[in-house]
Amino acid sequence: VGDEVIGATMNRTGSFRFEAKKVGRDTGLSQIIRMVQVAQGSKAPIQRLADRIAGIFVPVVISIAVVTFVVWSLFGPYPALTFAMINFVAVLIIACPCALGLATPTAIMVGTGKGAEIGVLIKGGESLETAHKIDTIVFDKTGTLTKGEPEVTDIVTSRDFTEEEVLRLAASAEKSSEHPLGKAVVIKAREQGISLVDPKNFSALPGSGIKATVDGKEVLLGNQSMMEKEQIDLAKLFSEVERVTSLGKTAMFLAVAGQAAGLIAVADTLKEDSQEAVHSLRQMGLEVVMMTGDNRRTAEAIASPLGIERIVSEILPDQKADEIKKLQGEGRLVAMVGDGINDAVALAQADLGIAIGSGTDVAMEASDVTLIKDDLMGVVRAIKLSQKTMKTIKWNLFWAFAYNTAGIPIAAGLLYPFLRILLNPMIAAAAMAFSSVFVVTNSLRLRKVEL
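Above: the chain sequence. Below: its structure as tokens.
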């Protein structure tokens, strides 16, 4: 009850009633189509280079055509005026910069279309171009590298509390929480048949934990930093903290009425494709960074199997954007991959924000690239697609410019004194059209590229 149902979902067992909250242009499919259309119509920064070249190229060509007409009129054989007009027209036709204008937009249209086909939505040509320049990629841990479905694995208590009491107090405090760790505690309590009470004076401290009143007692549940701020003595639990964090588990401390009551260890497993994605990115020469609010030991236990060497740990949600700025201050071009509301500012700050499609709407709105599937290999595909598209654009621009430049002397009649060859305007028109066809065909090759 209350779950979202995606359009075109097939229900094979039983029946259910649903409410259509978004119709027409507000549906997810319409938004995807609109995003692709906007991206295909956008200009990449490299297009500005083509526009500048065309802005210089066209006046130069017109000048060459005029000079050709004058030279042939004055020094050409009889009928000089006819030869002058033919060569004047041939120069203008063969130098028409149609291919130059098609070089970038055709590649962007095909590239963004290919991205949508493989589940990578790119918001514009600028994002597509930026992706191939990225040298550092930052992953949020929870929900991005990991499944975001933590489970309670250990409950450690002090002498004055039993495991059931620790779990009941913690789960009651987290009863209304939407945080994945809080949900894991509540699920564990309900699995054990523990009855929960409604908390009072509930307040969440982002990146730290929660405060609430349960059974008339003040209950604190959070990380070590929170306990230290509240001056809770954790000396009796430190040995267990080292054990659980060395296994990659997150330690949540429970304090009741100002006294340490216990510790709840929660583990979140890595996604199946995390290791493959990180390995592929490192092979491409990118530095991979993991960002998490967990302590250093827990973070290292998660990062080690993935081969991630640079870790930013014990970080609050509002500090993520600052860490991105630090990396940019080192001269790096940074991509940020995240899925939550607390990743939105960092996604916007990064040179390229990549949102996981299973995440929040806020994160997707703040990003430059959205992965429709909850698949980290989509990050690899997005960067490879950018590289292939930019390579195609550069080849298109080279061909268009070189072809037109090489054809101008022939059209101007440079070969006539030696080989008695002039370029017929009809042949010049066919050659110009072939140049445009080549550029379009070369761009269409992106549809078949393997990512």
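The chain is about 50% helix and 15% strand.
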